[in-house]
Amino acid sequence: METKLKDKLGRPLRDLRISVTDRCNFRCRYCMPPEIFDKNFKFLPKPEVLSFEEITHLTKLFVKMSDIKKLRITGGEPLMRQNLVRLIDMLNSIDGIEDIAMTTNGSLLPKYAEDLKAAGLQRVTVSLDCLDDEKFRYINGRNVGVQKILDGIEAAQKAGLGVKMNMVVKRGMNEEDILPMARYFKDTGVILRYIEFMDVGNSNGWKLDNVVSKKEIFSMINEEMPIEPIDANYTGEVATRYRYKDNGNEIGIISSVTDAFCSSCSRIRLSADGKLVTCLFASGGHDIRDVLRSGVGDDAVMKTIRNVWEGRDDQYSVERLKHTDKGQIRKIEMSHIGG
Fold first, then answer.
1. Contact of 77 with 26, CB cutoff 8 Å
2. pTM (2 decimals)?
């Protein structure tokens, strides 16, 4: 049997994250600032975006040659991709795929949650950065209120989807919302995860001073609502997991800035335009779309995938901590590769 893939640092390939579109109906200021992603911004033309058949074909090859059992659908906002339910159904039919999740802003879940669940989606991670309506309308850049996202969460739960909540914490934007978010979701069954503000892409004006650290977030919550660490679900899990001491419900912190987890990273990202990206902070990707479309055959496509992963030595977050005084390298925008 063909040896499963490992990169230069001995890391296996276990997770595939598939971006299905670079478009989004929000303009969140830490991801797609409205002054940059305005009406004149040129999104990917349709011919450059991978078709559902191409995505499914590539996923089958990934499963064949690696330890991938989990998929995550991302964007942009993935529900902006027309007929996404059909893709979920196609991916769910692949032998070896055990789990399909999706990251979304939640605004379109009331429309699609039941169909997504029926097609094979198991979990959603919804982004919500505060409960203050005025502030949230400012952050998302589209004047969308908090209730629309809460309605999306409710729709997902009613459909039987597992729900996690991501809150990006940026100093000067929403650090005062850390505790209100914890209070609100503590008894809801929704796992809230705080994310340190990351330097993904080049448009969000990232500075280390804007980062509220895992240690700070933990201290704020623990002082009012005591929490204790719990074990990771699996090797390479990005969130540090905790539980409330009084009810046992889970809460988490994702700390890719102050507490790098590069050593156990087993993720590869497939961008909407068919690039293989081996790190969230990569400056570029490796083309697989044109290889696939050239008609060279599966062996050549798999050879390309193998060369990309076996040549991988990315550990950007480790390097960032060593060189915080250096200028930031140019990186792929979050809207092209998701989280």
1. yes
2. 0.89
